[in-house]
Design goal:
With about 250 residues, this protein is an alpha+beta fold. The chain folds into two domains: about 5-150, no CATH class; about 180-235. The chain has helices at about 25-30, 80-85, 120-145, 145-155, 165-175, 180-200, 215-235; strands spanning about 5, 10, 35-40, 45, 50-65, 65-75, 95-100, 110-115. Strands 1, 2, 3, 4, 5, 6, 7 and 8 form an eight-stranded mixed beta sheet that branches. Helix 1 packs parallel to helix 3. The termini are far apart. About 30% of the residues are buried.
Length: about 250
């Protein structure tokens, strides 16, 4: 039976001072059954031309001889990443979450591994990780390897898909042959950011003070203006000459 305290699993490990949980064959074999191969010391991945599915075992050291493992589950869409790079946006095309948020508990989860000599407990920790991966990570990755499903979750406001959605969604629309939706979204999002910025500074408590244009709200707006202009010029107007970008 697993030993658990406050949603953190404590375990003892074999006497290898600087080892990582990703070096255990039991973990590698369990992930290989679902097509995941070890990419580096902390990451296992499965990829095609359309997506890269990743499971990362990220650790922190809360105290000496103890590691907390955060299992991160993510999907990368290489075509979206490539478009982002061309537009100098390097944070698009990837959706990810801590595995705990994919489970019914919907809470951040870590596994704690202590540097002690009992191999049975480390095996039980790996077994629970694999159960979580099988039950929650694999269905999530399979479902959202399809852009249509990912687009839907962004549209309905799923919090896992919200970070970066102002950049991700128009690119996903474009790749899903929804160019009109891409154009409409970028224009509407730009207008929303303009109104939001105006409201922030209309409510500014010192009306006679000049506001630095490098202030956060201005910077967010200006960065999106630049993105929107380049995105529509290079990816919308090329095939839709009748569309005019409205600033």
């Amino acid at each position: 039976m697993l030993l658990s305290i406050k949603n953190i699993i404590f375990a003892k490990r074999i006497n290898m001072k600087y080892d990582y949980i990703t070096k255990f064959d039991h973990l590698k074999t369990g992930l290989a059954k679902n097509g995941f191969v070890q990419k580096n010391q902390h990451c296992f991945s499965c990829k095609t031309d359309d997506y890269v599915l990743s499971i990362d075992f990220i650790h922190s050291v809360p105290k000496p001889k103890v590691k907390d493992y955060n299992v991160m589950v993510s999907i990368e869409y290489p075509k979206a990443v490539k478009i982002g790079q061309k537009l100098n946006i390097f944070t698009v095309g990837i959706i990810g979450a801590n595995i705990g948020y994919l489970s019914p508990s919907n809470k951040y989860k870590v596994w704690r591994v202590a540097e002690l000599d009992d191999n049975k407990l480390i095996h039980s920790v790996i077994e629970e990780m694999l159960i979580y991966i099988e039950r929650y990570a694999i269905p999530f990755l399979k479902k959202y390897s399809t852009l249509e499903n990912t687009i839907h979750e962004i549209e309905v406001g799923n919090k896992i898909f919200t970070p970066g959605s102002d950049y991700n969604l128009p690119i996903f629309y474009l790749l899903n042959n929804e160019k009109n939706n891409a154009f409409s979204f970028v224009n509407n999002e730009l207008k929303r950011k303009e109104l939001q910025t105006k409201k922030i500074y209309d409510d500014y408590p010192f009306p006679n003070q000049i506001i630095d244009e490098n202030a956060p709200a201005y910077r967010v707006l200006n960065e999106y203006k630049e993105f929107a202009s380049k995105f529509i010029e290079h990816y919308i107007q090329v095939e839709n000459r009748g569309i005019v970008f409205l600033t």
